[in-house]
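Q: Entry one of two.
A:
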Amino acid sequence: LTLGLLDEDQQKLAEMLRLRWELSQQYWSAIARFGGERWPLEDLPWQTTGLRLESEYFSLTVAAILVHDLVRRKATDDDLTRTVAIMERLADRGRVTSRMTKNDPTILLHTPGVTMPLAGSERTGGQLMWRMTDFSAQLLKRIIQLAELSRNIGAQDRLLRLAEQSFEHLWKRRIDEGEGSGLWDNIRAVYPDAHDAGLRMSWSITERVTECLVAARILYEQQPIRSPELAELARELLSEATHLFGKEQLEASAAPDGSRARAMRSIESRLDHARSLVDDRPATAFALALPVLQELDTLAQARGAAAQEV
């Protein structure tokens, strides 16, 4: 809409579509979170209103809409924590993070997949069905998007661990050899009891996994979550280290190419680097300050021992 590639009529149509998309998103997000106590989305699985179908896949679809809305309106910690719990339950119920039991009906979620009748298609012939087999990949993508949104250390840690488990599940489903090697989808690699699931190359699943990798790159390109408490501790460590460093500088200077002089230059460089990181990466600054303090203490002890010998 902002590149100027559309004419006036196309621009109006695009804006109307965007408005309806945003309104639909807000509507389904409100439905998913309706009520003051338990969210309807937390009552798994989600049931469609028209055909009265229910599946974890539909819960995941509504959760995906909710994730987009949370990104748009800057989610609260409560919203985020509850959504994380939903993702964990979906991963468990979908047997992504838990094992498949004997004759487990959950296998139908992955193969042959969830089918959705396309309303109105019967008017032009036979009833058309939309088959969805990408539950695991969709779940991973939403988990990564939530982790990108999260600014809560505890919630993001849960999401990252869940993402690792989900990605491991998907990685095992790659085709190892033959046509389509390195692509997806080998269901029986993770669900050996899925006897009816043959080895089939799926561009849909492969494309979904690629989307997950792109989302993961976006996640890791942003700065890690900043801990105010750790930032304060890092500043206190750096303050003490700076003071001790200045004290060491007051002592009799050694030759500029001596070991003590080289150590002092190294300490000064590391202190400057730690100070530059304290606002954005306080944990790293904290970790850098500790060995500096230890080295300054070693220099002080060596100087004290040398003075006693004299």
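Q: Entry two of two.
A:
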Amino acid sequence: MTTLYELADAHPVIGRRWSQDQAPEQERILCLARDALDFIFATGQRYDFEDFFNSSDSRRLPPGGGNAELSERMDVTKRFFEKVREQPELAEEVAQSQAILDAIQYIESTGQQDAFAAYLQHVEANAPPFVVASFDTRETAQSWLANHPHPPDPASVLIANEFHDVVYDRETNLRRLPNSRALKWYLEELVEKEQPVPVASFETREEADAWWRRQSEPASRAWVRVGGEIYLAAYYPNIQHRALFPLSLAHPG
């Protein structure tokens, strides 16, 4: 059985096969493997993953998914890493390949193909860090965490549109919501890759918020100008939440 440590430590087998001139099909395989691993952690399912492989459910055949294209990509990825597992370049690649295979099996067997497909869209759009919930106040968030029967861990949430980590230890029942620097790091990396070009300008934050709420089919992210400051407008379809993040968070004064 793949341990949580092995699941978190499986990325090197992907990195060793990544190259700038690789075939598009291999890039799709490696990206899906990476994203399958990240999906479990981003959605806070490490304990669910562990419990699944400790139960008889892990031996069931996965249910058929409704997304034929994604199912085919997952099958191709499984065949690729089954071959790597049988013919590893390094001894540790056996466990790393198995972790990827177990991650895909978990997603399939628990019927999460649609959620995984949505996560892939989030990643491909280079959207802001994934979150599982949003709260207006810290008190509301604390109440949610205190009363949650199985808090997601690891995961991120928004509190008044500020990022916080969800920390939960099942053995001690420790529950915390520390501040997260994930958005700062994301914005720093984003502006290194692209020039922020606003698609709309507003005099006030209220006008910008109202405009973003009116978008019937919002993009995952878009730059806007509010007064003299640039903001990143973000949309999280998994929780139906829209936010405006000031670019100044990347380089606070």
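A: Comment on entry two: The chain is about 45% helix and 15% strand. The two ends are 48 Å apart (CA to CA).
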